[in-house]
Amino acid sequence: MPYYLYTVLVPVLFIVCVVVQTVYAALFAWRTRPLYHTATTPSASLQPASVIICARNEATNLRQNLPAILQQTTPNHTTVTYEVVVIDDGSDDDTATVLQTLAGQYPHLCFASIPSGGKKAALRHALTIARYQHLLFTDADCRPGSPHWLYDICTPLNDGYDIVAGYGAYEQIPPSLLNRCIQWETMHTWWQYSSYAMLGMPYMAVGRNMACTRTVALQAMQHSLWNMLPYGDDDLLLAVTRTGVRVTAVATNGSETISAPKTTWSDWTRQKQRHLSTGKYYRLPTRLALGAYAVSHASMWLFIPAMFFATTFPALVAVATLPLLLQWLVVQQAGKRFHNHIPLWQWAAGSMAWVLYNFTFLPYIAWKNKTNWT
Q1: pTM assigned to the model
Q2: pLDDT tens digit sequence for 227-253
Q3: What CATH code is carried by the domain that includes residue 100?
């Protein structure tokens, strides 16, 4: 390789990547940091909501998590009007028995058992049962972060928003390396989709903690793209809804849901393959923006070894800390609310590992699809 590539071209390209990363961190995160929606609606005026859960062979999780969902209140401990609708998607365990027992204790729980048809079919059936116009979606393996989770997530719908994106946390299991990766990737994903939502470019939410109006849900379910895949109900909901739909993110204490994380690399890999398969269906401007971020991020780290023998190597590497520091400072704000502190060194290590993550899952990001939702 010609010497001038080491001394001129590679450093210049590296600086360009750092600039893109810095602008991204400043524009898509730092400026949106104070804009997360804060619940201010008086509890008496909060419109009723239907909590939707689709479950298949989830007897253990429902037994553990559903009571907390059925005991929601407000920060002032006043009552809220809501129902919980659980669709048993052809389970062959004790799911129906658990639901029958809990329904006897909680009159606002209603459920139906249907032949196994996948999550999309279960969601469509849920909307035929749900009574209210505001819908809050979560999963059977999730527990709410507080007794006022429903109030926090649904308040923006009261204020005129159409879709609300919440944070889907995972339990922290130190000192597992896999769990550290899960915590980093989950927070990084939240940082991205919440920032885009606040800047008027929403592209995804997580189905385990997302609210929307019935109008938006029905509109999505009538779209051919939403019905094409057996998964991705959360991402595709945003991809197929009309322009002008108002989307916000909620980052208040207790507004998160908490799930048990995967404990083996193979299980986590399969989960990520499914999650990432919907990215190719995002709107074009979003795909271009996310692609520019991912390419500049990977190039920034890959150029560092190429510059090792350059006389300016220490200074150039020091420059790369600027976008990392900006990202970390923003993530720390959300981390305080969600009780997920990620040290700076771990954020930097995760940033380097994210290069490998993107190359590993590139086939599913670009063209492959998973064929089931479990």
Answers
A1: 0.90
A2: 777 666 777 788 777 667 899 999 888
A3: 3.90.550.10
